[in-house]
Write a structure and sequence with these properties.
Elements (H helix, E strand, L loop, with lengths): L5 H23 L2 H4 L4 H21 L3 H23 L20 H14 L2 H7 L7 H4 L5 H14 L4 H17 L7 H16 L3 H19 L13 H12 L17
Helix pairs in contact: 1-3, 3-4, 4-5, 5-8, 5-12, 8-9, 8-10, 9-10, 10-11, 10-12
Length: 266
């Protein structure tokens, strides 16, 4: 896939900064109250803007600015969880019910945890992981069971918990994938490759890790050729960066040079 130019990447960064400033103005003008919008939605959107900024700087090779923007992104994306579950959160009195605010669902939680893995900051993980959790109804969601298990495993791994627990969680997901065949591309196939990659990390299996990561990247690149091709995340995968960072904790290596993996964040 043709890579974006430096000018295009800088335009994405500038647009995201403009969106942040526009959002701040609307908040001051009472736009949220006028249209009965949740505060969580504004925090989540700002987190996505910083996410795009982080990807842009990473693609341009600017590690300090990429890490700074990724940190801001994670903190804003985590705010809806703090509003829901952290009694000490200053915005808790404005929180919508977790199952109604639309910002802490299963895919969002999965993406946030993988972004935290990409940042690889134990201090931030210790601060936020206790609150980055699913609503009870999502915990019991059988349709998305494989991704729920990904979330549970990542919570343990990022907290530096027991490897045996993470492995057991991932085995449950992988066994489910095998007994319920995956047909074609989509979230189930992507989740399977993530679970297989994380499993290989815990087992310290370098060859399986390489194969699973390559499968993930191949699928990611295929999906990026579609409607996402004009967006920053089509050209850089924080999920892949996060899995590589976790692999390094367990003594595994990544020696590739894939265009979807920005070296500035490794």
């Amino acid at each position: 896939m043709k890579q974006p130019t430096a000018e295009q990447i800088q335009e994405w960064i500038d647009d995201a900064h403009d969106d942040i400033e526009s959002q701040k103005r609307r908040l001051k003008e009472g736009f949220r109250e006028k249209h009965n919008l949740t505060l969580e939605g504004f925090f989540w959107a700002r987190g996505i803007y910083y996410f795009d900024i982080a990807l842009g700087h990473a693609m341009l090779g600017d590690r300090p600015q990429a890490e700074e923007a990724l940190t801001e992104s994670i903190r804003y994306l985590a705010l809806p969880y703090r509003m829901a579950y952290d009694e000490g959160c200053e915005h808790r009195d404005q929180a919508a019910p977790p199952e109604k605010n639309g910002t802490i669902g299963i895919p969002q939680t999965n993406s946030l945890l993988l972004a935290m893995a990409a940042l690889d900051n134990d201090e931030i993980n210790a601060e936020l992981i206790p609150f980055v959790q699913l609503a009870e109804s999502d915990e019991k969601d059988q349709e998305f069971m494989e991704m729920v298990q990904t979330i549970r495993a990542l919570q343990v791994m990022l907290s530096r918990g027991e490897d045996s627990l993470s492995a057991s969680i991932l085995k449950t997901a992988l066994d489910h994938s095998k007994s319920h065949p995956i047909k074609g591309a989509g979230w189930r196939r992507r989740t399977y490759t993530i679970n297989l990659t994380l499993w290989s990390v815990l087992q310290r299996q370098q060859e399986t890790f390489d194969e699973a990561l390559n499968l993930f990247l191949k699928d990611y690149e295929t999906e990026s050729r579609g409607e996402n091709r004009d967006l920053a995340f089509a050209y850089a995968s924080l999920e892949a960066v996060g899995m590589i960072k976790l692999a390094r904790r367990y003594g595994l290596k990544y020696e590739g040079d894939h265009p979807l993996i920005p070296a500035a964040l490794l």
